[in-house]
Every structure is written in structure tokens, then in C-alpha cells.
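Its record is quoted verbatim for completeness.
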Amino acid sequence: MAKILISRDGVLEKTVQLTKERMTIGRHPHNDIVLEHQTVSGEHAAITTILDDSFLEDLYSTNGTFVNGHRVGKHHLQHGDTLKLAKYSIDFVADGIRPISGIPAMPLVLPPARIEVLNGSNAGRTLELNKPQTTLGRAGVQVVVITRTEAGFAAVHAEGDRIPLLNDAPLGKLPHPLVDGDVLDLSGTRMAFRLG
């Protein structure tokens, strides 16, 4: 289970396990994680966790939400990310995939997959999906993250105001499983997901 370490002025104040699918952070007492400082908005941010993926969302806070020094609206959290909410520094700690107790972990074996660019000056170029996560797009504008999971590959709109499309429908902030032949559209650049 992922957790966050909350510090202020270099002093660790609390450690919070991300036990719920969506946990809100803010100054008001109804939040799941309460940060009692006037520079924190009443409802500042939220962390949504689905399986082993966590996503940070700024809730239109006054002073903004930052990850590794960059202001974000929505962000796919990675192990070791440092969040800044007003006076607070928050370290994100992912725990990785947990094997079921008593059963040895099996190696992750998935068929090879790639992204093929369908149009524009890079048409025909391919990108092998051989890492746990592959990022597509431009930071701050439009970012899609493709994640390898035990069940296969999934895409999520991780960052930016422009909504990417998956098979001509908006790709949301929750992971969407990919199947062979799916077409992603990032700002007019069309890319096909190829399996095998």
C-alpha cells in the first residue's frame, strides 16, 4: 500500500497510508488528510489510488500543488515524487506489486507491444513498450502514460488541459485497458497500439 510522508520546515509531522480509493487533502476538518495551516486551501488536493497507481489532483487551490518543483493540475505519482502544498513537503512512497502470501511471485510475461505513429512527419515510426511505464506527449500540455500491468497494458491521461482521444473518445484520468489496434490521438498525432 502506498503512503505519503508529510513534513513541514524539515520536520516529519505524519505518515499516512493511502487506504481509500480517493483521499482529500486540505485545511478543513472533513478532509481525509488535514493540514492545519492558513496557506493550505480548505480543499487543496486529492490522491486517487487504483490498484498500484496513484494520481494527484489539484482541487483549484489558491497556492497551487507542485510535484518535483512543477505546478500540476493532475499528475501520475511515481515512487520518490516530492509534493509541495503550501508550507508542506510530502514524499510519495510506492510499495510496488505485492505477491500473494504463500504463493511465489511469477515473473511478469506479456507479449511484446509497441506504439506505431500513423500520420505526420513521424508516420511509420514505432516505440517499443518495454518499460513498466511509457510517457507520450508534452509535459504541461498533454501527457498520456501507458503502464504495463499483470493484466496487460493500460493508458491514462496523466497531465495537461488538452484531452487525448482513445478510439475517438476522450481518454479519462483512470487507467483504460488497451487492446491490439486501439488508436490514441494526441493533439492530432494518431498512434496505434500494436500487440505481439
Summary: Confidence is low (pLDDT under 50) at residues 97-108. The CA atoms of residues 40 and 86 lie 6 Å apart. The chain has no helices and 21 strands. The chain has two domains: 3-93, 113-195.
